[in-house]
Structure formats: structure tokens, C-alpha cells
Amino acid sequence: MSEVPLLDIRNLKVYFPIYQGLLKKEVGTVRAVDNVSFNIKKGGLFGLVGETASGKTTIAKTILGVVHPTSGEIRFKGEKISHLNDESRRKLTSKMQMIHQDTSSSLNPRKKVGELIKVALDIHRIGTAVERLDEVSRMLQYVQLPPENFLSKYPAALSGGQKQRVAIARALILKPEVVVLDEPTSALDVSVQAKILNLLTKLKKEFNLTYLFISHDLSVVLNMSDTIGVMYLGELVEVGGSEDILVNPMHPYTRALISAIPVISEKERNILPKVPPLRGEIGSAINPPTGCRFHTRCPYAKEKCARERPNWVQINEKHTVRCYLVQRF
Description:
Structural class: alpha/beta
Low-confidence stretches: none
Radius of gyration: 21 Å
Number of helices: 13
Distance between the termini: 35 Å
Largest sheet: 8 strands, mixed
Mean pLDDT: 91
Strand content: 15-25%
Strand order of the largest sheet: 6-7-8-3-9-10-12-11
Oligomer: single chain
Shape: globular
Number of strands: 12
């Protein structure tokens, strides 16, 4: 009997209506996420990568209940969670947490660090006042912020890296099973990014966490993830193990992302796939291209690509791609 995924997304669609005028007449639809399916096993790290406006963050918000799906299902431990009522959703927040990209705006500047981390324990009424404070101190130690120095500090007194550590502590204080990381290091200096990524890796092992790692930076996702999903304009176009994606990328868009990874040596440059320049800009989610959505930018596109949406092609047990041109590579 196969293992039930901890998190299972099935045929997820998230559409947003566009209204216009005083009467709020619906004049169009933004297809932010269009028929996306993937799953994450317990202890796994699934990286979701793609350009801005590809639908990555919308998927994250839908998983956490901030956005309601248009159709499809989201299951946690086999139980459907995509249409929970407010009370059931509140109980689920202790199991699923999110670390945001813009830490500064997610931390209340009027509250001290200790209060920011403790608020989740207060809401869920976990422990006594003394026990809550002790738990906050322990969590600060886990994220390498000495409690004696940071409990009473305000966010304005913290560096970018320290704010992110506070955000991590706040997310983990309820001991969740799934943590959604939405561009967790994109606002940080490169030297600080590495320290935060190392900390996240360490905490994943210590707390037996399952991560959904969202980023536009494929080089970071390749280093962090065991499985990667590549998104383009609301759709998944390729899914595979991180080594498969790096060594044998099959979709032209994936190959373009990998070819753009910065390198410092000629040897590394020779490893990257050689891809002709992409054409134009990413399409519109309001009026997406017919057929393969990437065909308007693909240097290899044929007439069929514009007419018909390609089906998934199985490369190996864990590697699938949605493209007519697999044999070309």
C-alpha cells in the first residue's frame, strides 16, 4: 500500500473575477492557477519555481486557506481541507504555517520580539503564562537569537536576517508539520541568505518538518529541494527530482531557467544547457495563450504547440514534463 502524501494538491484552479464600473460588472477572469496537481510526502521538500505572476504564491495562500479555490482539492493527511469552515481552519493553523517574503511588514512594529512569537500560543491557549514565555525563549535559542538579548527588542532594532529568524521562530512555535516558505531569503543580502537557508535545513531535521519552498531563484531551489515543480503562467510544466531537473531538464522553459543561473567558472558554464533566447514577455493570465502557454516565447515551438495543450510525458518514475518537444533534447 502506497504512503498517503502529507500534502496533496489535486487539479487545483484559482480564478479571480475582474469587475468594472459602478455596477461591478464582471468583464474577465484572472486564471492565477490552472489545473495544478502535486503532492509532498512527510519530511519532503518540494520546490516550486517560476517567474513572477506564475501562480506560486497563490498556491501557497490557497493551501493555507487565505484564498479559496475555484475548483480542485487540497488534502492534508488524506483529509480534504480546501473548503473548511473558520473554526476548522483555525485548528489547522497549528499544523501548517507560512514564512513570508517581506518580513518587515509581517512583524508588528509596536510589539516586542517575545510578544510577536508568543501570540500564537496565546491564541491557541497553550500552556500557562510562564510556560509560554519559556517556550518562546527556547524557540529563540533554536533560531540562534539569545533570548536575554532579543526578547524585549522591537523589530526596528533588528537586522534583516534577525527579523527573518524571528519570523521563523514565530512560524515554528506551534510545532507545525508543514511550513510554506514564500521567497524566504529574496529580501536578504547574499551572505545572510546562506545562513538562513542553513538554519532552515537544520530546523527541518530537528523538528521533522515538511517544506513547500517557493522561489523564482532556481539555483536556490535546486540546492534546497528533493523535488521540484516548474510553473509557467499558472500551470506546472515539469516536475522531477532536483538532480533530474538539473542534469536532464526536458521543458524549454526549465532549460532557459537553468541556463540563466550565474556561474563563476568555465566548467560550470559548460554544464548548463545551451538555449536560444526566449521571445517576448510572459503572457497574460487574463487571456492566456491557447495550446501550450509557453509557445509564444518558445524558440522551438511548432504549429501544433499553439493549437493543442500537450499532455504529460513520463520521463522516469519521478520525472514528468508537459511538452511536445521532449524528443528534441
